[in-house]
Amino acid sequence: MDEGHHHHHGGDFDARLTACGVAEPVRTYLSQCAQFHSSPAPGLLIGAFMVDYALELLGANPDEKLFSVCETPKCLPDAPQVIAHSTTGNGRLKVIPIGRFALTMNRASTDKTADGFRVYVDQEKIKAFPIIDKWFSNSPEFNKHTMGTNLQEQILAAGRKLLSYENVRVPVTLKETWQPVTCPSCKETVPDYLVIDGKCGACGPMKYYEKR
Amino acid sequence: MDEGHHHHHGGDFDARLTACGVAEPVRTYLSQCAQFHSSPAPGLLIGAFMVDYALELLGANPDEKLFSVCETPKCLPDAPQVIAHSTTGNGRLKVIPIGRFALTMNRASTDKTADGFRVYVDQEKIKAFPIIDKWFSNSPEFNKHTMGTNLQEQILAAGRKLLSYENVRVPVTLKETWQPVTCPSCKETVPDYLVIDGKCGACGPMKYYEKR
Fold first, then answer.
1. A10 torsion bin: left (phi>0), alpha (psi -120 to 50), beta (else)
2. Residue A96: inside a domain
3. Do B21 and B88 fall within a single domain?
4. Which residue of B has its CA nearest to A134?
């Protein structure tokens, strides 16, 4: 979702937020998301509205300890990261590559499960927004060069109107305990539970680079 | 890595950055990372020094289009996200659960591979920093309640002194083209390449929630 975006959204996008009359706190969310992501990508903007909706459903403040699951890696994950400190690195964001444009959010829980809300792009509701619908369905009729600004404006105007939610329950995952193991091949240390056939994953099936 | 951290780092951490004399631009990187992550977690701080080092090796400005691979999901991924806009949602961050505390960064490339640098915590160099070593190796001698501040100060003082790097080459992955498919079970749309046995992953093996 990165190709073709401007590398910095600069003041143009903030000016559009003003012109479109986007209210707080979503306005700030959108601006911060675009800055972080390095462009105001359409999926990211929809994602910011989704997180705002999930926060309201939970009755939660974005500064609480919140957990998120994104059902797609495309754009969406940056919204809960920026808005709700539910990040890849702090372990409160999980991305599951299902490919649906949907997000589940829940509070921390001491039980084995947590109640939360799943917010998703509703296939019926999106029909009221033809440009968004064309973009979302990857239609050949969508031209990002001529329709990009209209798409952005339609997303800002639509807000939650293309979203629905459901009440869900998700499993709570515990931190794994671990002991360090030195990989006999590369001599770096890894947690014991990630050792594969006596070696670290990179000296086995997860090798992703060549030395040069 | 989240448990036991303060939910907001507030002014305490910024005051420590000043007291420890951390120079720019790393000082700003560290402060922004802690804010995003919602705590100045040790692995995150080391990660910020790693990204700063990788940027220097690449001769890159953090506002360029940069790609990162993190070899652990713990804390580290938030550093390239915050500092270099190499995020989960914009597709420029990949996390591979190898379990090594290492990061590879590279520029965009039109070739099938890209040259980059892999920065890692060096098992020999870390021995010069006993508190960091105890924390890093998950030693029972490390007590986060009594040694947390000392750990933080040792990390800030050590900076790059516990890091090494190697020259690497990584494969460049292209965007997948796709057509939308409506899942016959849930009626939501997913890209065709993610369909499993005629259904979306969530209506199959990737189900992660129950309705309530």
1. left
2. yes
3. yes
4. B180
Mutate to test the interface with B, among A170, A188, A200 (most CBs of B within 10 A): A188
Q: Do residues B166 and A211 touch, judged by C-beta distance below 8 A?
A: yes
> How confident is the model over A161-177, as pLDDT tens digits?
999 999 999 999 888 89
Residues B180-189: contacts with CB under 8 Å, at least 24 apart: B180/A136, B180/A137, B180/A138, B182/A123, B183/A100, B186/A100, B187/A123, B188/A100, B188/A101, B188/A102, B188/A120, B188/A121, B188/A123, B189/A100, B189/A123, B189/A136, B189/A137
Per-residue model confidence as pLDDT tens digits over B17-42: 999 999 999 999 999 999 999 999 99
Domain count, chain B: 2
Residues A70, A134 within the same domain: yes
DSSP A183: -
Domain for residue A1, yes or no?
A: no
Measured in angstroms, the CA of A23 and the nearest CA of chain B are apart by 23
The whole model's pTM is what? 0.94
Q: How many angstroms away from the CA of A16 is the closest CA of chain B? A: 21
Helix (H), strand (E) at residue A52: helix A42-58
d(CA B7, CA A63): 8
B129, B197: one domain: no
Q: DSSP class of residue B177?
A: P
Q: Provide the domain limits for residue A209.
A: 176-212
Q: E strand or H helix at A170, and its extent?
A: strand A163-171
Per-residue pLDDT tens over the stretch B57-113? 999 999 999 999 999 999 999 999 999 999 999 999 999 999 999 999 999 999 999
Question: Does B183 fall in a domain?
Answer: yes
CA pair distance B46, B52, nearest whole angstrom: 10
Q: How far apart are CA B159 and CA A70, in angstroms?
A: 34
Output the CA torsion sign for B75, B80, B81, B83.
positive
CA distance A69 to B194: 17
Contact A87, B36 (CB under 8 A): yes
CATH number, residue A142:
3.30.1330.130
CB atoms under 10 Å from CB of A18, counted, come to 10
Nearest CA in chain B to A77: B89
Strand ranges (E), A51-100: 66-70, 93-95
| Interface ipTM | 0.94
Assess whether B80 and B141 both reside in one domain: yes
**pLDDT at residue B137 tops 70:** yes
Query: Do A164 and A192 share a structural domain?
Result: no
Q: Kindly state whether residues B197 and B147 are assigned to the same domain.
A: no
